[in-house]
Design goal:
Radius of gyration: 16 Å
Order of helices and strands: HHHHHH
Length: about 140
């Protein structure tokens, strides 16, 4: 239970930093993470991770599309990183679907822990967004 609380604290900090210091794409990424997390908690409050979690997989696919669209709209590096990390989460679902003998714990850890680098990079991008806006060519 503490892990869920810690995750939501990091998520809310990410959204707050994105709102306060980020540009439109940083806010979009933070809102994507927030909406996906709330939907995941609402649709699958207690996942078993013994089989592919279809609801979480669909949400993760929508998040991947959102991050990919952000990456196509900017020349910054950070959207490519978050899109890549989200793709790793998708591959975790695909592997669980292909190989049912994968244990529940590693499957759940991959799905959960891949979110932290994404959130931390959104915080970094939001903090550097205001510095990019101040630079003139």
């Amino acid at each position: 239970m503490w892990s869920v609380a810690i995750y939501y604290v990091v998520l809310l900090i990410t959204v707050a930093v994105a709102i306060r210091r980020g540009g439109p794409l940083e806010r979009w990424a933070a809102y994507t993470a927030l909406i996906a997390s709330v939907l995941t908690s609402a649709l699958t409050p207690f996942p078993t991770w013994t089989d592919i979690e279809l609801n979480i997989f669909i949400i993760d696919m929508l998040v991947l599309l959102s991050f990919w669209f952000i990456a196509m709209r900017t020349q910054s590096f950070w959207p490519y990183w978050i899109t890549g990390w989200q793709l790793i989460a998708i591959f975790g679902h695909i592997q669980k679907y292909m190989f049912s003998e994968i244990l529940a714990r590693p499957y759940s850890l991959l799905s959960v822990y891949i979110s932290y680098p994404i959130l931390l990079l959104i915080i970094y991008a939001s903090g550097s967004s205001s510095r990019r806006d101040n630079v003139t060519a």
